[in-house]
Amino acid sequence: MAEHASIPLTIEFTGGLELLFSNQRKHQVELPSSNRSPNVADLITYLCDKLMKDPRKDMFVLDGTVRPGILVLINDADWELEGQETYQLQPRDEIVFVSTLHGG
């Protein structure tokens, strides 16, 4: 029996971040997984490469991770409690990115 080729996730963007993602708040994503479980860092790369249509990637990421001022929730818990980028994603996890930055 083959391992999961992808992990189904629910991704949500709020606080203005949805503007960077085709103005759509909620996305169902099938994150490809190779020989290891992908983590949040892999998800962030995937979102920038595959889902973000807006050229202003620096509004979402800075130095390879989400920029300061963006709150990340993993299944309704602050990602700082879950290990941040190193959290191993599980099927049907819900990841919410909330911008606390206003203006522009």
In short:
The protein has 104 residues and is an alpha+beta fold. It has 2 helices and 7 strands; from the N terminus they run E-E-H-E-E-E-E-H-E.
Task: Label this structure with key terms.
104 residues, alpha+beta, Ubiquitin-like (UB roll), five-stranded mixed β-sheet, globular
- Number of helices, where a helix is a run of at least 4 consecutive DSSP H or I residues: 2
**Oligomeric organization of the protein chains:** single chain
Low-confidence stretches: none
**Radius of gyration based on Cα positions:** 13 Å
Whole-number count of domains: 1
Distance between the termini: 50 Å
Question: In the CATH hierarchy, what is the superfamily?
Answer: Beta-grasp domain
CATH-defined architecture: Roll
Strand % is: 25-35%
Largest sheet: 5 strands, mixed
Helix content class = 10-25%
Number-wise, the strands total 7
The CATH topology name reads Ubiquitin-like (UB roll)
Arithmetic mean of pLDDT: 91
Overall form: globular
| Elements, N to C (H/E) | EEHEEEEHE
Widest beta sheet: strand line-up: 2-1-7-5-6
Content-based structural category: alpha+beta
Name of the CATH class? Alpha Beta
